[in-house]
Amino acid sequence: MTNVYIEGIGMTKFGKFVDKSMKQLLVEASIEALENAGNPKVDAVFVGNFMGGSIGNQEILGALVANELGLGYIPTAKVEGACASGGIALRQGIMGILSGEYDTVLIAGVEKMKHASTADVTQAINAAMDNDSNEKQAGLTFPGFFGVLANRYFYETDATKEHLAMIALKNRENALHNPLAQFQKPTTMEEIMEARIITSPLGLFDCSPTTDGAAALVITRKKGAIHIRSSAQSSGPTQMQDADDLLSLPAVRESGRLAYEKAGVGPEDIDVVEIHDCFSMTEMLAIEELGFFNKREGWLAVEQGRTTATGDKPVNTSGGLLSRGHPIGATGVAQMYQLVQQLRGTAPNQVEHARLALAQNLGGTGSYSTVHILERL
Amino acid sequence: MKVYQCDQCEYASVSNKYRCPSCGTGNLQEQDVSSKGTVYSYTDIHIAPAEFAHLAPYTVALIQLDESKAKVTVRTDGNVQIGDVAELDYVEDGAYIYRKC
């Protein structure tokens, strides 16, 4: 259990913003979070970001935020953990408060990707693979990794591409009600099933998009309504060929186990979930690894509608990465934005009487995972 | 094909490590094994990063080696299915290129 509370939240619209710099997006989300928290004194800033250097030529994000907001000469840092950068930034802030060093920390996450070509973005994302490996040289990509997992999942279970499409459709339907989501155009099973293939069996709707956007949180030791009950982080294999069980993401499983243990709750107690659905297949594996459903039976739960906003285990009521959008460094923070709204009772796709919420943020091909469990007091 | 086999447990990998990540105590010993194996899973990549765009679409497969517990990620010459038997054809820029037997 931590003694850390979320006092304020902020988030930009996710999408394509050619006229806004990465700094502008960061500042916009941060100001909203500070105002939402009642403008407390901030002792430190942690910013989650992955490719600001490689495709934006912009670093020193922590100091930029402190200067633009006039926070004074406080310590700041950028945190990189591929797609888990945001979740790890949050965890660093929590650790700073738990250590006694800080009372109040501003957490932000940002990415600006839409100005670059798909080939250049795919190349930059591949920095989260092991350069010094035969696997990367073979031409494996991030979507490719989850394509290999999906084909094996289909081989070992009775799941088909339609089950992945059900996940993509569910998340799109949730995004339709989220005004900050990137995709707000309705779709159909037919359109998802017939979309062009990115990496077999995954089609366009099975893959999260490139996105511009930012999100921010103010966390503090001052007791408030939203309690961070636990924070956990794990690493996993950095190469697919080193997976002991290809259909397992050990970092997700272990970070989930630690988070439940620290919080003193189990998967059955969680009312609402934000999961790192970078691909539809990733959501399938994560709902199993986090213990919501049995291994290799997640597809049955999907088929039965149990993960929809009105199901018994609502997953990605924000629209998830697939439809809310995936500005890489912002994603882990944006998950918390949605869950805090759920616990405050003001969320798109509000789950009635939500009291315990869980967020899981993944980086690389299972290289990093964070899990945070929130509680409404 | 070089693999690294733990001297204390069953763990094996195509990449060496300081100590065995499975049992945490064993050391990995280099072994030469046959490149022959079975396709464990695969994907046909249509959208590729800039450095591989000229190859797309191409197939990446995970091969379960016959003579080791290790698996190896390879690019295949042509399409494959799970269960296909394949072996190393040649090595190109650090990538193992496999073909069906």
TrEMBL record, chain A:
Residues 5-222 form the Thiolase N-terminal domain. Gene3D superfamilies: 3.40.47.10. The keyword Transferase applies. PROSITE patterns: THIOLASE_2 (PS00737). Its EC number is 2.3.1.176. CDD domains: SCP-x_thiolase. It is an enzyme of class 2 (transferase). The keyword Transport applies. Keywords: Lipid transport, Lipid-binding, Transferase, Transport. Residues 236-376 form the Thiolase C-terminal domain. InterPro entries: Thiolase (IPR002155), Thiolase-like (IPR016039), Thiolase_C_2 (IPR055140), Thiolase_CS (IPR020613), Thiolase_N (IPR020616). PANTHER family: ACETYL-COA C-ACETYLTRANSFERASE, NON-SPECIFIC LIPID-TRANSFER PROTEIN-LIKE 2. This is propanoyl-CoA C-acyltransferase.
UniProtKB/TrEMBL annotation, chain B:
SUPFAM superfamilies: Nucleic acid-binding proteins (SSF50249). InterPro entries: ChsH2_C, NA-bd_OB-fold, Thioester_dehydratase-like. Residues 31-87 form the ChsH2 C-terminal OB-fold domain. This is Nucleic acid-binding protein.
